[in-house]
Amino acid sequence: MFSKACEYGIRATIYVAVQSLEGKRASLKSIAAEIESPVAFTAKILQDLVRKGLMQSVMGPTGGFEIDQQKLDSLKLSQVVDAIDGDSIYKGCGLGMKQCDESKPCPVHDKFARVRADLREMLESTSLLGLATELETGSTFLKR
Amino acid sequence: MFSKACEYGIRATIYVAVQSLEGKRASLKSIAAEIESPVAFTAKILQDLVRKGLMQSVMGPTGGFEIDQQKLDSLKLSQVVDAIDGDSIYKGCGLGMKQCDESKPCPVHDKFARVRADLREMLESTSLLGLATELETGSTFLKR
DNA sequence: TTTAACTAGGATAAAATTGTCCTACATAGA
DNA sequence: TCTATGTAGGACAATTTTATCCTAGTTAAA
After folding, report:
1. Which are the contacts of B77, defined by CB distance < 8 A and separation ≥ 6?
2. What percent of chain B has pLDDT over 70?
3. Which pLDDT value is given to residue A113?
4. Dihedral over Cα of B45, A98, A123, B119: its sign
5. What is the pLDDT of residues B32-54, one digit of tens each?
């Protein structure tokens, strides 16, 4: 469904969100440990998310990654996916055809449209804040 | 969503289905031309589908690929996807976690479960026969 | 029986994705 | 000011996916 990079990215962002809620920064090391991901690879993904404005990084000791309160209040899962994998998941043709729309649909166009609309709706309506609070209460997990 | 191989595989299967409906075999060359896919790569995919029993191949002149009537009557899109990409699309964890189930769910487990159930339902209820007849009537397309 | 139109499949290459290593740079705190 | 703890980012390696090439084997039809 998503690329590995996107999976790590989503998990990392949720963890950073949790830490930010508690007023702490998350170091790369702690993030990678918490989500069980390769450190250097995770670094690239986070750098990307910082560049795209989804979170901030602070260098030096006590540095790390954080999401400011205002951002956190509005951040949706769809923005993380968009930043890493782009929007082809819910925009491109399910059968990889370049020109596929209502006027010249691929054989599964209509059927896919519904599923992808669902996916899109889900990603756009899911807030990082919500995911973070669920994780905080221990009802969901980031490892294993 | 699907791998390139799976996209080609689905498109190829639909074309073979159309030809089979008309009592014709589809040659590899004609298939690749019709779905605009790399010939040799498409050959591998088709060989795989033959090995997995989704269609048959006949060697020599007048040879090619075909789906017998009985098979065609029951063949679902899900079987093609399963044969090429496996069932991880609607079975694996959306965030790539190894152990993710009701008892230890990832942060998006519930939300994903619904979308993937929809996808699964769609794939399992979509028949190749239906897709082939729609293509025959010119209401859908395999190219561009 | 020869030929031409086919599929089968191994070997290899190209490209994209995933993952690692190393050096540079930033900065809080001793 | 020095040092330890951070991130930034370039270069490179491994793996997987996608694509190509070539030879062998099959068989209908001339």
Report:
1. A108, B10, B122, B123, B124, B126, B127, B128, B131
2. 100
3. 94
4. negative
5. 999 999 999 999 999 999 999 99
What is d(CA A75, CA A125) in angstroms, rounded to the nearest whole number? 10
A28 touches strand D (CB under 7 A): yes
pLDDT digits (tens, 9 = 90+) for A32-45: 999 999 999 999 99
Residue A30 burial (CB count, 10 A): 16
State the CB neighbour count (10 A cutoff) for residue B124. 15
What residue has token string 């404005």? A53
Interface of B with A (CB under 8 A): 1-2, 4, 7-8, 10-11, 14, 77, 89, 94-100, 104-109, 111-112, 114-115, 118-119, 122, 126, 131, 134-135, 139-144
Helix (H) or strand (E) holding B120: helix B109-125
Q: How many helices (H) and strands (E) does chain A have?
A: 8, 2
Give CA–CA dist B43/B26, Å, rounded.
12
Q: What is the pLDDT of residues A52-73, one digit of tens each?
A: 999 999 999 999 999 999 999 9
